[in-house]
Please model this.
Amino acid sequence: SDHGWPPESKDMHGIFMASGPRLPGGVRIPAIRVIDVYPLLMDILGLAITSPIDGDLNTLPALLDPREPVTDLSAGIIAGGE
Model:
């Protein structure tokens, strides 16, 4: 069954903004799948994913600087949408 708009429609896109020590500044990337944000955050925090998920960190590898996982959570991650 069909419902709503297709996810490819720009009207369905949100905004993802992130800031922190492992995220390079001033980078703009094409649209990402929201299900890939969870594995990205888990990798940033150095936490293991212990159960199967639909997201895939390998779709966003260029987004992270290859440094140690964040231990100071005050650096923050900001996400917003319209």
